[in-house]
Write a structure and sequence with these properties.
The termini are far apart. Helix content is 35%, strand content 0%. It has a domain at 1-29. The chain is mainly α and 60 residues long.
Length: 60
């Protein structure tokens, strides 16, 4: 590894350790894994899909 790529790797590592969205953030603080995600907001239930054929006026 050249000096410039080693410097870049060190900068990338530091940035990852300061980013709470990165696993390196938790591992650098002695935490084992990402905390459980909170429940996602529930969206209103969608209407049930129509499964019956809707005949056209010309089909009658």
């Amino acid at each position: 590894m050249t000096k410039s790529s080693a410097d870049q790797a060190a900068r990338d590592n530091r940035a990852n350790q300061l980013n709470p969205n990165n696993d390196a953030y938790r591992s650098s603080r002695g935490e084992s894994s990402r905390p459980a995600a909170p429940d996602a907001p529930r969206s209103p239930s969608a209407p049930a899909p129509v499964t019956e054929r809707n005949p056209k006026a010309s089909d009658k």
